[in-house]
Amino acid sequence: MLLPLADHILFLLLGIVLPVILLVTGNRRRKGTPIRWSEKMKVGLYYSNGLLLYGMAAAVVVTWLLTGRPLTEIGLGWGKLPYDLTAVLLLVGFLVLYLLDLYYEAGSPASREETRQEFKKLGFLPVNAYQFLHFLFLALAAGVGEEIVYRGFMINYLSGLFGDTGWAVVVVLLGPAIAFGVGHIYQGWRAVGKIIAMAVLFGFFLLRTNTLWPLILIHTAVDVLGGLLSWYLQGREE
């Protein structure tokens, strides 16, 4: 399929350049002196990163509209009803595994302390109600922006280049998942592995259903729960 030049530029910037920058800066941050995050710095980060994510999604949407393509091509529609049963069951399976992992991270005093220390090391997660309310802006921006960019756009782009059958589907699913995962290197490689696995599963769901809405909802909910857990564990120190 012949793709518009704008798609190639967007993929170069969002799928290659940005992940490399995030990988390098994330590694430096992990190895450098920990930042002492003030409340003002945290709230500023929530809005600056949130606006960046919305901007990335807007670039994709505007490109699609200017080239005369329907937004349903990038999953902004209800998709193929009824939804593919395998895709739905895998998504349900992800939710079950996520809840089990959440229990593993907070189900005992020892695991809660370990998770609290990890959150404390990250530094920017909310520790009180005021911070959490502002954090919600970032959680929604991540749910909307990252799904439109890393699932809706990138999977459509790679499917246009390689197709979405046979071995091509491996490239279509893994490429965006890796680009998405390495952007979270600041959380550590273990977290990156989980994020890549989640991204592959989300990509499979999109390929089989052609809708992003359930993914946006789940992605946002996962981030909100992460913020709540941080508030619960770290707020007890306040």
From TrEMBL:
* Swiss-Prot/TrEMBL keywords: Hydrolase, Membrane, Metalloprotease, Protease, Transmembrane, Transmembrane helix
Supply one GO BP term.
Answer: CAAX-box protein maturation
Hydrolase in keyword set: yes
Residues that span the membrane, as ranges: 6-24, 45-65, 85-104, 125-145, 165-186, 191-207, 213-233
Which interval of the chain is the signal sequence? none
Pinpoint the CAAX prenyl protease 2/Lysostaphin resistance protein A-like domain residues: 131-224
Sorted alphabetically, which Pfam families does this protein's record hold?
A: Rce1-like
MF term (GO), any: endopeptidase activity
What name has this protein been given in UniProt?
CPBP family intramembrane metalloprotease
